[in-house]
Every structure is written in C-alpha cells, then in structure tokens.
C-alpha cells in the first residue's frame, strides 16, 4: 500500500510527489501520456517559478524576459496602453521542459513516476483508496492511504469521487510563428467577450498567439481575426480548457485535488502554474496520510493563501467586459509604471505599487 498515489504529473502533481517523497512517504505518480505532452500552455510565469525548480533549470528552460504588457481594446493596430515594471516582471519558459524537469525532481526525491498509465477508476474505502489504471501491460490496480487528483481541468479523480466542478471552463487556443523575437512586452487584446487574446515573444522559440474565451464565444473566428490582424502565418495549433472559480470543496475522506482539478488559477489570466505548485506545497505540508482529518487543514491553508487573490482577480476580469469607451478611459488613466506582482493582485495595495505610482509624478 502506497502512502500517496498522485494522478497526473503536471506542475502540481510533480511538485506534490517530490515534496511528499522528501518527507519520507511512499509515493506513486501516474501520468496518462508522456510528461509535458501535449502542450496546451503559454508558459508565461512570474520569476517566482525559479523557487520551485532545481539546479540548471533557468539555463535549460528560459526563453525570454518580460517587463510589461501593452493592453489594446481592439486589434494589433489599435492604441496601446502599456503597464510595466522597472525590473523583470515575468519570464516566458519552455513549458514541456518545465514539466519534465519537475518530474525528474520528483523521481530524484524517491517518487515512483510512471508514464503511459491512465487512471480510469478511483474507489474510496474507509481505510484506503483503490486506483485502477490502464498501462502498457494492461489494467493494473494500486492501493493507497490517500489519492491526490492532480489530473487537470477535466479531472477523472474529481468525477470518480463526485466532487463538485469548477464554476466555469474557458476554451484556450494557441499557435506559433517561428520568427525570433526578444522584445520584452506582451500584447493583450480585449477583443473576445469576457476574456482576451495575446501575443507573447518567446525569444529564439518564435512568437505565440493565443486567445481564451467562455463557451458560446466563437473562439476560432476571434483567433483568425487576431492572426489576420498581425498578418502572420502560424503553425502548431493547440488548445486546452482553463478552469475558473474553485468549487466549495476539493477534498473527500481520503482524496484531495490540486491544480486545475481544483481551479487553483488566476481568474483574470487563467494562469495556474504558480498557484498549483503553491497549493501542492500546502498539501505536502498539511496532509498526513495516516490522519484523514488533516485534509481539512489543506482546504484551509490553500484558501487562506489564495482566496483573496482569486476574489480580487475576478473583479479585475470584470473590467474586460466594460464598454469600449470606458475601457479606453480606464486604461489611459491607469497605464504606466506599476509595482504589482502578477500572481498577487492584492499587491495593488502595496508599498511597491505606491512607489511606482509616485515615480510617475
Ligand atoms: C491555452 C492555455 C494557456 C495557458 N497559459 C498559461 C500561462 O502562460 N501561465 C500559467 O501559469 N498557466 C497557463 N495556463 C494554465 C496552466 O496550463 C495550468 O494551470 C497548469 O498546467 C495546471 O497544471 P495541472 O497539472 O493542474 O493540469 P495539467 O497541466 O492539465 O496536467 C494534468 C496532468 O494530468 C494528466 N492526466 C489527466 N488525466 C489523467 C488520468 N486519468 N490518469 C493519469 N494522468 C492524467 C495529464 O496528462 C496532465 O499531464 C494555460 C492554460 C491554457 C489552456
């Protein structure tokens, strides 16, 4: 019997597996495909990401550094409203490489990470959890004291255990052009209803164009308009779901969700790499597989840390739906140097931001 079976080896699955193995627990981590594949993420993260990686990660994964974002209420030729920091605000990184790097750290810590194992069944018993997976040798069964559902937005673990779903799923699409671009600003277009489209320079790795929007929005049409506006040819299209709004409960008696399965994402960008790994750390710190009551401590810990950020993030997102003239006035008034941390909207009320505002004067 394992202490933990982790389902899904994205950033939170790998991070939790590593941390739990370092605590001395017996950890099995199952990934349905190859770690990191298929890609469905921009890999645009705050520089805090390097606090979660190991030796040599930056040299291996770094693609470009970003100082700010230019907001547009319309397409590429519309007015740009820049928001920027004096220091590097974020990095663009190789997301497939990040997942592989984090999985290697989990293996180094002693976790048994197995690829090509798709979990198809999870049954909770009073004293254990039974997990069924389909692997290269057919169907295999495992038992664990607890199961961690780190299996993304359409989580099988969540479904099997009848845990509630996130409030909303956005549909995100990406594609790439291959010209090198080392510019240090991303572009954000408030064109698709209630969310946005983007252009991210990825250094030698080319340029990424993307868009996310809720169901009902004609994502393909808006994406074609974006590409046409930039007058560019793109390849390697990919897409994925972005969960927004965590459900009220992400734990049962012997199971817990981490990452997109629990909608631990930023409501105003859909970003979830940092929140998911932060939550994985809360899980590893709080949960003792021999004491199911410790799951409540995990629920409290991650919500205490992220709930206010997510609440404020939802308010920021509402601004994407304001009438265009109001957006122009707001962006015109607020643009310029800022001191806000991209993962922590509450830093709008911080000394750093105040200093940045004063320096404009
Ligand atoms: C278009 C798009 C762009 C994005 N851009 C950014 C960005 O720039 N920055 C950012 O921070 N976030 C971004 N995100 C969000 C980010 O990708 C997620 O928040 C993050 O990947 C969450 O990690 P996760 O491991 O919870 O989910 P996932 O990355 O989806 O990983 C889940 C893992 O579980 C595995 N799995 C699923 N089901 C099973 C099963 N039954 N058995 C075994 N394994 C299973 C999957 O194969 C996968 O490896 C973006 C998302 C999208 C869709």
Describe this structure in words.
Helix content is 30%, strand content 29%. It has nine helices and 18 strands. A hairpin with an 8-residue loop joins strand 5 (68-72) and strand 6. The longest helix has 25 residues, at 294-318. It has helices at 11-22, 57-61, 95-109, 156-160, 219-230, 273-286, 294-318, 324-334, 351-360, and strands spanning 2-7, 27-30, 44-46, 62-66, 68-72, 81-84, 90-93, 112-114, 118-124, 129-135, 138-149, 168-177, 185-189, 196-201, 207-213, 235-244, 255-257, 336-337. With 361 residues, the chain is of the alpha/beta class. The termini are far apart. Residues 7-13, 30-33, 40-45, 118-119, 150-152, 156, 172, 174, 210, 240, 242, 259-261, 265, 270-274, 276 line the site of flavin-adenine dinucleotide. InterPro entries: FAD-bd, FAD/NAD-bd_sf, Geranylgeranyl_Rdtase_fam, Geranylgeranyl_reductase. GO terms for molecular function: FAD binding; oxidoreductase activity, acting on the CH-CH group of donors, NAD or NADP as acceptor. This is Geranylgeranyl reductase family protein.
Unreliable stretches: none
Bound molecules: flavin-adenine dinucleotide
Main β-sheet description: 8 strands, mixed
End-to-end C-alpha gap = 63 Å
In percent, how much strand structure appears in the residues?
A: 25-35%
Q: Going across the biggest sheet, name each strand in turn.
A: 16-12-15-14-13-5-6-18
Specify the helix fraction band.
25-40%
**Rg for CA atoms:** 21 Å
Nearest-integer average pLDDT: 95
What form results from the Cα inertia axes? globular
Number-wise, the strands total 18
Number of helices: 9
Helix/strand-derived category reads alpha/beta
Along the chain, the helix and strand elements come as: EHEEHEEEEHEEEEHEEEEHEEHHHEH
Organism: Natrinema salsiterrestre
Protein name: Geranylgeranyl reductase family protein
GO molecular function: FAD binding; oxidoreductase activity, acting on the CH-CH group of donors, NAD or NADP as acceptor
Pfam families: FAD_binding_3
């Amino acid at each position: 019997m394992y202490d933990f079976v982790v389902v899904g080896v994205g950033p939170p699955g790998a991070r939790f597996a590593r941390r739990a193995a370092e605590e001395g627990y017996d950890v099995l981590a199952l990934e349905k495909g190859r770690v990191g594949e298929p890609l469905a993420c921009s890999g645009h993260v705050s520089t805090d990401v390097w606090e979660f990686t190991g030796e040599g990660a930056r040299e291996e994964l770094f693609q470009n550094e970003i100082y700010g974002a230019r907001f547009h209420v319309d397409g590429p030729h519309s007015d740009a409203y820049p928001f920027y920091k004096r220091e590097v605000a974020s990095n663009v990184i190789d997301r497939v490489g990040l997942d592989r790097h984090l999985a290697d750290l989990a293996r180094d810590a002693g976790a048994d990470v197995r690829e090509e194992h798709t979990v198809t069944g999870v049954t909770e018993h009073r004293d254990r959890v039974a997990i069924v997976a389909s692997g290269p040798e057919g169907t295999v069964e495992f038992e664990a004291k607890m199961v961690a559902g780190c299996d993304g937005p359409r989580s099988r673990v969540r479904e099997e255990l009848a845990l509630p779903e996130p409030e909303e799923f956005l549909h995100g699409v990406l594609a790439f052009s291959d010209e090198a671009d080392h510019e240090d600003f991303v572009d954000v277009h408030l064109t698709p209803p209630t969310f946005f489209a983007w252009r991210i320079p990825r250094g030698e790795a080319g340029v990424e164009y993307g868009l996310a929007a809720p169901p009902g929005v004609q994502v393909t049409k808006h994406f074609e308009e974006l590409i046409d506006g930039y007058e560019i040819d793109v390849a390697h299209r990919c897409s994925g779901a972005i969960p927004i709004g965590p459900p009220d409960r992400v734990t049962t008696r012997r199971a817990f969700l981490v990452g997109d399965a629990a909608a631990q994402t930023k409501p105003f960008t859909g970003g979830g790499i940092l929140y998911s790994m932060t939550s994985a750390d809360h899980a590893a710190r709080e949960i003792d597989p021999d004491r199911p009551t410790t799951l409540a401590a995990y629920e409290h810990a991650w919500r205490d840390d992220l709930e206010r950020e997510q609440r404020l993030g939802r308010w920021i997102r509402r601004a994407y739906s304001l009438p265009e003239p109001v957006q122009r006035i707001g962006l015109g008034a607020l643009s310029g140097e800022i001191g806000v941390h991209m993962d922590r909207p509450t830093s709008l009320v911080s000394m750093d931001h105040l200093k940045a505002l004063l320096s404009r004067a």
